[in-house]
Amino acid sequence: MDCLGRNLPRAKKGRRSRNARDALTRPLWPVHFKPLPDELLSSWLVRLASAHGLKVQTLSRLLAGSDYQLWNRDLDRVSPAWLLDALCWKTATPPEVGVGTTLKAYEGKIYRTFHDSYVLPWILPLKMYHRTRRGYGLQFCGRCLATDPEPYFRKRWRVAFYTWCAIHNVMLQDRCPNCGAPVIFQRRELGRPKEVDGGSIAQCYACDFDFRESPVAAPVFYEESAQRAFDLAARRLEHHGPWCKPRSVRYYNVLHHLCWMMTAHYRNARPLEFAGRQVGAPELLLSSQSRTFEMRSIAERHHMVQLGFWYLAEMKERLTAAWHDGAVTYSALLRDFEDRPKPYNEIVARFSDWRSR
Ligand SMILES: [Zn+2]
Ligand SMILES: [Zn+2]
């Protein structure tokens, strides 16, 4: 029986694997390390399986039974409570640390309310298709992976505005630089049933390229105030600092709405072009497809979000200048945007009469 009282599947492989499975029925697993700082649940699970000499699939069956397909979903977002309970119990990990490995941990911080379906603001979608993905929903910093004593994947690498690593001052990458495949580290084993050792978690599942050897590029910033705001937001994600004003969830709501406005097409209103002109940003040819901010490439997101930070750095002055220019409109600033901070409402209220422009 496993920790949840289910019958364990019969051992089919060698003695080593069988012994490891037997050991996993004990109250505490033989190897019971806790998640590393900011580690994703999926990364922790894959490393635990490897530490026990088990395939990811085997450990998944032990935890979830053979009928429950753990990896057919975005496990870091759709994280069953019973799975977290079992993992925390077997590794003597505090429950709040377990929950901290999931994307629910950002609730009330960068988005208001968590839900496990549809678009979740700021969270990069994986676009799951069976056990593989069609979305580039997991980014990485090759330098972080290269300097880790044991490579692992961070939760903040799932955040759409986190486009560069402030620790190493390099752009993140959202796909394999060698073959262009999405980062799906668990597929190194899931897609290779006959292989016991799936190699390093830091290697591409499709071509074996080692992400630690990825070429790096420094991020380009257009303007100092936007860079400061961008840097602060990035470091908050890295160091789990206090989420106090003015970086409350409503701050991120305004940033998200500005990014949404930049991706939407309005007649005359061009908040992206206006901000770009003010800071002398190069023109970036954006994909013409109607996409949410989270669905855009890392280059597009980096461009847009820092122009959003530019507005926020001097919100009253810069939104007012954009309104006078006709780059933003009263209706667009309020459309489908309910959870607004008071200072934003006060600024936008002054734009209600377009004739006073
Ligand atoms: Zn890094
Ligand atoms: Zn590759």
**CA-based shape:** elongated
SSE succession:
HHHHHEEHEEHHHHHHHH
Count the DSSP helices: 14
Strand tally, please? 4
The percentage of residues in β strands lies in under 5%
Small molecules (ligands, ions, cofactors) in the structure: zinc ion
Fraction in helix? 25-40%
Total domain units: 2
Q: For the largest sheet, list the strands in their spatial order.
A: 1-2
Q: In this structure, how is the largest beta sheet organized?
A: 2 strands, antiparallel
Overall mean pLDDT stands at 86
Work out the radius of gyration.
Answer: 23 Å
| Low-pLDDT segments, ≥5 res | 1-14
Question: Distance N terminus to C terminus?
Answer: 72 Å
List the helices and strands and how they pair.
Blueprint: H1 15-23, H2 41-51, H3 56-64, H4 81-91, H5 95-99, E1 128-129, E2 132-133, H6 142-147, E3 164-165, E4 170-171, H7 187-190, H8 224-239, H9 249-263, H10 271-279, H11 298-313, H12 315-325, H13 330-334, H14 342-349
The protein binds zinc ion (ZN) (2 copies).
One zinc ion binds at residues 141, 143-144, 165, 167-168.
